[in-house]
Design brief:
This is LysE family translocator. InterPro entries: LeuE-type. It holds the Pfam family LysE. Its main location: membrane. By secondary structure, the protein is mainly alpha-helical. The chain has one domain (about 5-200). Helices cover about 80% and strands about 0% of the residues. It has 8 helices and no strands. α2 crosses α4. The relative contact order is 0.23.
Length: about 200
């Protein structure tokens, strides 16, 4: 390994600390793991990983500069992301207990929905900006370095995201009554809606 990639150790620690701490993705993964189980939450997790990979690579290759020059684009994305997050919060809060089948609410987040949300997720932006500003090697191809760093970051992130989905699945095994399920989903919905404050502040 080239000496310039000795930073991968600190990168792993940084990504683990950021991914394991609460945020919009982790709240929604917990709710999904509880309501749909681990397997059906896998596309949601994969979408987060794929979306962050694209976002982080794009930041390194100039997307961050574009937003600095045209702040209206970022502002519009924030409002769009906030509206979408509130919609997801409503879906989570109003979801019926898992034992009630056939509801239009009982659909986990898809790969593309989760991936698209990362571009409006402030925590993902903070992670990506700090990652590329602090750890991107200066030597070699900028494109290759960005792809390697973003890819390694998401390789580390995947098991961390799985912890939250697994946590939700464990909660799902513990909750027994329909009333408890409705209360849990309402709490998860409110926590998801509260993340809008992070986006619009």
């Amino acid at each position: 390994m080239s000496s310039q990639w000795l930073v991968l150790g600190p990168v792993a620690l940084y990504i683990m600390s950021m991914t394991l701490t609460p945020g919009p993705n982790n709240v929604m993964l917990t709710a999904s793991g509880a309501n749909f189980g681990f397997r059906r939450t896998l596309p949601h997790m994969a979408g987060i990983v794929g979306g962050c990979f694209i976002l982080f690579s794009s930041i390194a290759l100039g997307l961050g500069v574009l937003f600095e020059r045209f702040p209206a684009i970022q502002l519009g994305l924030r409002w769009l992301g906030s509206a979408y997050l509130l919609y997801l919060a409503w879906k989570i809060a109003s979801a019926p207990p898992p034992n009630l089948k056939g509801s239009s609410h009982s659909i986990p987040l898809t790969f593309w929905q989760a991936a698209a949300f990362q571009f409006a997720n402030p925590k993902a932006w903070i992670m990506g900006l700090a990652l590329m500003a602090g750890f991107l090697p200066e030597n070699g191809s900028a494109v290759v370095n960005a792809l390697i760093l973003a890819g390694f970051a998401e390789l580390v992130a995947m098991p961390c995201l799985a912890v939250w989905a697994g946590f939700g699945m464990a909660i799902g095994h513990w909750i027994k009554s329909d009333g408890a399920w409705r209360a849990f989903n309402i709490i998860m919905g409110l926590l998801t809606a509260a993340c809008v404050i992070l986006i619009l502040r």
